Amino acid sequence: MTVPLPVELQALAAETRTITVLTGAGMSAESGVPTFRDAQTGLWARVDPADLATPHAWESDPALVWAWYQWRAGLVRRAQPNDGHFALARWAAHADVRVVTQNVDDLHERAGSEVASHLHGSLFAPRCSECGTPADSVEPLDDPVERLDPPDCDRCGGLIRPGAVWFGEAMPSEPLERAMECAQTCDLMLVVGTSGVVYPAAGLPGLAREAGATVVEINPEPTGISEQADHVWRTTAAVGLELLAPR
Ligand code: OAD
Prior knowledge:
The protein is α/β, with parallel strands linked by helices. It has 10 helices and 8 strands. The protein folds into 2 domains: 1-33 and 81-122 and 171-247, TPP-binding domain (Rossmann fold); 34-78 and 127-161, no CATH class.
């Protein structure tokens, strides 16, 4: 699909020196990682997140929760960064590009970007559920299994938990503070592939705008962010960013 680059965006991209990019699941869709809310392909269509991505689920059935996250880790391990991830990495040679992502995958890093904030944690940063000690015990699965016992912490014997943030759980303050700082100190905020329904991430474009930044949305569908954006480009992450990023 060839989508012309709007001229006003071309000029913005070429001139702006400080750019914060807020990414969501749509950023990785063209890498084959399902989004959360897309009706037919979303992970949510097959599993109820309320059963799996909550502290309550972990307390009642840690092996079910651990198995689900290790299956997602396997899916991401087999995926490759797409043209959009690579375009953002390339852009960093021309401007101060800060990536703030809601994604728990590592496709930005594998494309060569330094990620300023993983707002919702990472599939690849498990830690002890008791003492918080980081663990290196990700066990990516090729095929889903219903249950997999999580390993024990070497230090205290507690269960190792996934490094993702769960619904109903406080977000760690450091990534949130970094994300807010990136939003409040940029000249351009690109919002790519997020439905803009999960806070506090969905509030970051508003913060950027209040601080004087231009907000541009790249998403094939309208979202909760669209109305606050200065420019909306209905294209995909891989197509849009590849055209937008300077060479
Ligand atoms: P969603 O699944 O809610 O939204 C995905 C967005 O990506 C939608 O707006 C799609 O239109 C868009 N999209 C689909 N394909 C795309 C493509 N190729 N290029 C660009 N955009 C595309 O995912 P998020 O907004 O990331 O949180 O969801 C936010 C949070 O909700 C997630 O981080 C997760 C979830 O619950 C936690 O797990 C805490």
